[in-house]
Amino acid sequence: MMEKLRLGVFELTDCGGCALNLLFLYEKFFDVLEFYEITEFHMATSIKEKGPLDIALVTGTVSTQRDLDLLREARNRAKYLIALGTCATHGSLQASVEGRIRDRLERVYGTRANPMKALESKPVTDYVPVDYALPGCPYDKEELFQVLMEIAKGVEPVRKDYPVCLECKLNEYECVFLKRNIPCLGPVTYGGCNAPCVRSGLGCIGCRGPLPGANLPGHVEVLRSLGLDDEEIARKLRTFARWEP
Amino acid sequence: MIIEIGEFTRVEGNGRAEVIVEDGEVRKVKLKIIEGPRFFELLTLGRHFYDVPDLEARICAICYLAHSTASVMAIERAFDVEVPEEIQLLRELGLLGEFLESHALHLYLLAMPDLFGYPDAIRMATRHGELVREGLAIKAFGNYIRELIGGREIHGINVKPGGFGRYPSVRELETIERRSESLIRFARRAASTFASQEPMGAKAELFVATDGYLFGDELVASDGERFHYTEIEEHSLEYSFAKQSLYRGKPFFVGALARLIIKGDQLTPIARKLLEEHWEKLSTGYVTYNNLAQAIELVYALERVAEIARTLLDRGIQGENVPIEVREGEGIGYVEAPRGVLVHHYRIDSGGRVTFSNIITPTAFNHAMIELSLFEEAKRRYGELPEMEFVQRLEEVVRAFDPCISCSVHVVRL
Ligand code: SF4
Ligand code: SF4
């Protein structure tokens, strides 16, 4: 029998969704276990083996010194590191809050003291080189399954580089913008989720982060034409990524 | 001397504890929430109300629908919008799906390995594969409902002020009715499994819940008082990113055990029978019986889900949203998240922007109670158990609260 790959899951500051989503693979999770041995995954197991790893999945943003230490440790121990979810790849919500950290601490906790060593929230990709970035808030679990299977077979996974829009077309979803004048970030957002929000008749809110090379100025015009003011547009765009329109 | 309990495992988020021992006696326990701050209250300020529920959903993945629903309810109250029964029933359905998903995750994958002496459910599955698979079946069903009502298994955006993006179809409701009935047997087995667990931690003396089973207009305490959450005092700690809450100067408990103790009379038939059967244990107030209480709620949720599906099928779905007229206002949404009372409170200006937001999560309400439970269990066991087992035992106490640490780190008024 072939040797299983050693996999660790490291959760930095986040909502837990990207770690949880792995468990939502259900029966397929057992398929993953055919190829991988999970040596640490703090949400799911009390086992913590410190050895070298073949793969580290890192979720969440670096928001404290503890997060940064843990991230560096994961990077040092792993051959292949996947930044998993929009927190890890783009910063997601907590990184989009404006203002300096001490001011924010004061507004929320009533003190500027920072004994827990909070840092400005930033994505994992700002601190260490990553081998693969899989965005999504949360990422699509089928996509992660594919990626893990490809790596187990020695194939380098390919990153999706088309907008959500394309997936609406493939699924034949009615375009919410053209048909119902609903603001939608689908044309400028990384695809790969299969457009579930548009399936519900709602606009994409951009949870997979900005697609590089998309026609952003054009899309801002479109949003303006729906009556949104510039501040609102900027906030919509900046929800999941620090993205300057 | 300080005994450090390193990062808790098999809980959501990052937390630790310190047991402070002097002269051979446990003097204090500090529960430290070390998850980084996430500033959700700041994040929502200035945002258009329509976007807010989708942002708040991201506070927590395990109970995202509780957050979006509480958020939507607060917004509707601010605008004086009443939704028809159909929309309320569908929201209830979604929340019940979330109970199934969340309780099953906690009971089968996080807590049950303790009962059988395994470090996790993966290893437990080698001997008790049947149980793990039953748990996964319930969890998957809960998520099916979450996806249907919420739009996605995690962080869907289908729950909106005034209604939904998409409404379920007749076929989907039929599936729900059929599948829920076939799962009740599994949930009953979970209840008998957890009924054998030893009592640990503190005996809670005061419980708090919303007045309806899953949501309501105000809070009720086990002493019969009705009140608004503002009666609960919060204070910051220097060793934790989460605040602690006290009601009338005392720690209190929110969650499944609190709901059963306060609202047991609202349960469905099989769940009510289970409650009676285990009442002697549950009424002692030992916090570890929260596990048993969650198992009984699995049965409740499955029965109630079938009831709601039936009702909706009988009367047919209209699928119409209530229009919203924007004006200045203020509203509070009270929802029972799987882990207990969840509060969202906003003020909205005449342009529809949020100017004030306050969120208090169940784990923040339970913070003081968790600390007290650790203290009592530590006093009871210190010197009696070898250190490894001592620490494991304390972790087991923490797990019974099913704490959601990510949620707990933003509990503020702005
Ligand atoms: S990317 Fe989204 S789902 Fe994933 S951890 Fe961050 S907030 Fe949660
Ligand atoms: S449609 Fe947009 S908001 Fe919805 S999951 Fe996809 S990227 Fe995220």
Automatic annotation (TrEMBL), chain A:
Keywords from the UniProt entry: Oxidoreductase
InterPro entries, per the entry: Hydrogenase_assoc-protein (IPR051349), Hydrogenase_Small_Subunit-like (IPR053638), NADH_UbQ_OxRdtase-like_20kDa (IPR006137), NiFe_Hase_small_N_sf (IPR037024)
SUPFAM superfamilies linked: HydA/Nqo6-like
Pfam entry (one): Oxidored_q6
Source species, domain of life: Archaea
Any one GO molecular-function label of the UniProt entry: iron-sulfur cluster binding
NADH:ubiquinone oxidoreductase-like 20kDa subunit domain: residues covered: 15-150
This protein's record includes keyword Oxidoreductase: yes
Transcription regulation listed as a keyword: no
NCBIfam families (alphabetical): sulfhyd_ShyD (NF040831)
Alphabetical list of PANTHER family matching this protein: COENZYME F420-REDUCING HYDROGENASE, GAMMA SUBUNIT, CYTOSOLIC NIFE-HYDROGENASE, DELTA SUBUNIT
Protein's name according to its UniProt entry: NiFe hydrogenase II, subunit delta
Organism of derivation: Pyrococcus yayanosii (strain CH1 / JCM 16557)
Lineage, opening ranks: Archaea, Methanobacteriati, Methanobacteriota, Thermococci, Thermococcales
TrEMBL record, chain B:
GO molecular function: ferredoxin hydrogenase activity; nickel cation binding
Source organism of this protein record: Pyrococcus yayanosii (strain CH1 / JCM 16557)
Cross-referenced Pfam families: NiFeSe_Hases (PF00374)
Binding site for Fe cation: 63, 407
Cofactor(s) listed: Ni(2+); Fe cation
Keyword Ribonucleoprotein in annotation: no
Keyword set, alphabetical order: Iron, Magnesium, Metal-binding, Nickel, Oxidoreductase
Positions contributing to Mg(2+) binding: 41, 359, 410
Alphabetical list of InterPro entries matching this protein: Hydrogenase_lg_subunit, Ni-dep_hyd_lsu, Ni-dep_hyd_lsu_Ni_BS, NiFe-Hase_large
Binding locations of Ni(2+): 60, 63, 404
PANTHER family in the record: COENZYME F420 HYDROGENASE, SUBUNIT ALPHA, CYTOSOLIC NIFE-HYDROGENASE, ALPHA SUBUNIT
Protein name: NiFe hydrogenase II, catalytic subunit alpha
